[in-house]
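tool_call: predict_structure(chain=1)
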Amino acid sequence: MRNFFIFISSIFVLLVTACNSPFIPKEKGYANFKFPEKTYQSYNAPNIPYTFEYPTYAFVDNQINYFGENKSKDAWINIQFPSLNGTIYISYKKIKPQQLDTLINDAYKFASNHSNKATYIADSVFTTSEGVHGVFFNIGGDVATAYQFFLTDSSTHFFRGALYFNTTPNADSLSIYNDFLFKDVQHLVNTFKWK
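tool_result:
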């Protein structure tokens, strides 16, 4: 009987003390990120077969280690956006005979790997004013990468890039960052030249 009395008293104390504070609704909050001004600089490193322009608020990391293999000698680079916690991962291949179809199919596979989470995958073929051919992939939904692309001269060079953020994919949260960097990716593509 004594245990029952202690149990009922405990419940009563919890009920009385749990309802002491008034309800205060939370205000709506929005991320307040000030994006940097869009200015660009040229990337034209020696012994690299391409050049392009990239934002001044980014830096190029050319010390690439891919599964223990040093890829910097193969003209692989990463364009880091430290203030946005994002990276454009870039790989480069010198095309061997009969290899172009394989490289293009691989690029399409990399984009379609996100189809289980993507709401859409749109690809668009283009040719820049510099005569560079390519395909741009716009991937919607809670995917790891919203933008992928590849560029080629169809005979010697193949250049592939993909934008990733170092965070859990959430289309709503990342949309303002993806929109902001979309123009930078477009600028990179439009100013790209083979040496």
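agent: Residues 40-194 form a domain with the Protein Transport Mog1p; Chain A fold (CATH 3.40.1000). Proceeding to next step.
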